[in-house]
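Q: what does this look like with flavin-adenine dinucleotide bound?
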Amino acid sequence: MNNIRLHSSQLEEIVGPIYGEIVSQEGKYRKVHLRDSTGKSRTLGLAKFGAITDPGLKTAHAEIIKGGLLGETLRQSKLDFRKEYLGSFEVVLPSWLKKEFSTQGEIALALCSRIEVKPSNTDGIADQYALILEIIPPELREHFDSKGSRLDTLTPDMRSLCKFAGLSVHTSKPMKKKRCIVIGAGPGGIVAVKELLEQGVESVICLEQGGEIGGIFSRGYDNLILTSSVTFSMFSDYWVGDGNDHHFWSKKEAVDYWTAYAHHYGVLEHIRFHAEVKTVRETGDGVWEVCLTSGESFPCDHLILAIGNNNIPRYPEWSKKLTTVSFSHSRDYKNAASFKGKRVLVVGGGESGSDVAYEIAQVASQSWVSLRESSGWIVPRRRGGHAADVSTHRGIWDLPRDYGKILSPFVLKLERARKDPVFDALAVLNERIKAERGMWRIYGTKTLALPKSIAHHGCKVVGAITGVEDGGRKLHTACGETLENVDAIVFCTGYVNQVAFMPKTMQECDPRQMFKHMYHPDYGDSVCWIGWARPGFGSQFPIMEMQARYNALIISGKMKLPEKAELLAGIEEDFKAYREQFEENAERIRSLVDYHRYMNGMARILGCYPPLTKYFFFHPRLWLHLMYGPTQATQFRLRGPGKKVKLAHEIILKLPVSTYNHIVKMGFRGRLRYGLRAITPRFVQART
Ligand SMILES: Cc1cc2nc3c(=O)[nH]c(=O)nc-3n(C[C@H](O)[C@H](O)[C@H](O)COP(=O)(O)OP(=O)(O)OC[C@H]3O[C@@H](n4cnc5c(N)ncnc54)[C@H](O)[C@@H]3O)c2cc1C
C-alpha cells in the first residue's frame, strides 16, 4: 500500500497533518484510511475521480499518490484548484473500520466535498476531478455539526460513494424529506428551484399556470425592453455575452436567457406547465395541500410563492364611475393600435406607465398622463452609449441616504445644462418630487419614454383625477385642469398585494410585515415569498436570487430562520429604516426597498458580503470592479455558502466599470464630506 497524505484541510486544522494508506482501488474509486501523526485513526477518505482527459491532470493524479497535500500538489502542477464543500451526513461505519473507532461508537459524521481542477491561465469550465468523503469521528463532530446538512441532501454521486465504501447512512434519527412546491415559473420561480437543487433539496415541484417560463416577460406588451441592463438582469452564476455590451434585453431575449438558465441547472424537469393553483390549505402538522384547477393536489412541507406581484390590477376609486368611457389596465396592454386617433388618458407614470404613454402618444390625437406627484426619479437607460445602471455602484450607494439632498439637485442641474427638450421635460418631472432626499426617497424610472412623449409627441402631464363627469368623458384634476371628450383610459396604477388562492388569513400579504419581505412571522420557514421586494434602483433579479439562496439554505438545514421574536424585531427595524428613507412612499408602496441596503443586509445574514478590504490590498483590480462596477448579483458569490470564487472573479472582471463621470465625482465629494463622521455609529447605521 502506498502511504499518502490526503487533502483534508478542515481536519488538519484541528489535529495536525493526516497520513493515510490506500485500502483499495476499483476503477475510479479509491478507498483511503487516514491517521493523524499520533497514529490515531481519523478518517476514511474515499475519492471518486472523474474522467481525466488532460495530460496535465494525469500528472497531478500520480503525484498525489506519491504524497503531499492535494491542493499543494495541484498548484505545483500549475493547476487551478477549487474545493467545494457539499454537505455532511451521518453514516454507520463498515465492520473493517468499526474497530478503529471501537471506543467511540459506530456512528460517524461524513463530510463530502468536490474537488475541481483545471490548467491555470485558461478559460473554460473546470473538470470535476474528485469527490471526497471524509469520516469524522464522534469526538470531532462538534467542529462540523454546525455545517451539517440533512440526509436528503445526498446527491447520487455521494450515495454511490457511500455504497462503494460499505457505509450505510444512519437512519436511527430519520429526517423528514422536505417536499417543496414553488408556485410560478417566472424569474423568481426558476431561481428558487435552481437554488434548492443546488443545496441538495431534490423534492421540488414548480407549478406554472402558463405554458412557458419567464412570467410577465412571456406575456408583457409587444415592445417591452427591460429597464435593467444585462449585467443587472443576469443571475450571478450563469453568464452570456461578454458582459460589457451595455445591452438591454427585449422580453424575448430575457425569456431565452431564463430558458437557457433553467436548462443548464436542470430546473426544467421540475416544472409542471399548465398547472394553475386554485387553492392552498393547511392540513395540519405543517403540511400544505396545493390544489390545481385540474382537480389534482400536492402535499408539501415548504411553499414558495413566486407568483410575482403583477397579478391583481389596482384601480383608483374613481374608476367605478367610468360608465361611458372604455378603460383597461397596463397588465392587458399589448400595443397602441386600438388607440389610434383617440383622446387617451394614461394614469400613472412608472416604468410601464411611461412606456405605454410613449406608444399611445405617438398615435393618439391627444394624450395625457395623470400623476399624483411624480413618475419616480427618471433616469435614462443609457448615457453616452453606456448603460446608466453601471453607476449603481458602491462608490455612490455606500454613502448615507441623506446625501440625496446634495446629489439630486446637482444631477438636475446637469440635466438642465444639456439644453435638450427631452432632458428639460425630465427635469420638470423630477422636480415634482418634493422630498429633500430626491432620488433616494423614491423609486427610479429608468426610461426616457415619458419625457420623450412630452417633448416630441404632445403628451400633457396633468394632476390626480378628482372628478368624473359624463361616465368618464369629462375629467377634473387636482391641479384644476379639465380633460374633455376622453375616449379611453389606461390605468398603469400597479397591483394589489394579494394572493387569492391562499387561506383567507393569508390572502392579504403585506411585504412590510414579512421578514426581509419573505417570511411571515406566523408561518416561519414553511411559506416563503420570492419577488416581493422591489428595489428603488438596481434590479429585482439579484434580489430574487439572494432570496432564493437564503430560502434554499434554510430548507436544506444549513441555516436557520430566526425565532419569531427576532423576526418581528427585524421587520420593525427594516420598516423604520425604510420609513425614514422613503417617507410616505414606504407606506404607500409596500414592496419598495433600497437595493444596496437590502442586498448588503441579506449578504450579512448569509455571510456572503464581499471581502472588500481584502481585495483592496490583494486584488486592487477586482476591488475597483466591486466599488465602481454595478453591484450586481455575482459580487455576492465571493465568499460564504454558495460561493463560486473563481467563476465570480471571471465574471466580475468582465463587467464594465463606471467612467469617471459626475456620479463617481459626487461619490468622492460625499466621502470627503462624511470623512470624519464615517467612524460614528450613526453613520454606520445609516450606511447600506
Ligand atoms: C413591465 C415590467 C417590466 C419590468 N422590467 C424589469 C427590469 O427591467 N428589471 C427588473 O429588475 N425588474 C423589472 N420588473 C420587475 C420584476 O423583475 C418583474 O416583475 C419580474 O417578472 C418578477 O418576477 P417574478 O418571477 O416574481 O414574477 P412574474 O414574472 O410575474 O412570474 C410569476 C409567475 O407565476 C405564475 N402564476 C401566478 N399565479 C399562479 C397560479 N395561481 N398558479 C400557477 N402559476 C401562477 C405566472 O403565470 C407567472 O409565470 C418589471 C416589471 C414589469 C411589470
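The pocket of flavin-adenine dinucleotide is lined by residues 183-189, 207-210, 215-217, 220, 224, 226-228, 233, 276-277, 306-308, 310-311, 351-352, 501, 531, 539-541 (CB under 6 Å). The chain has a mean pLDDT of 85.
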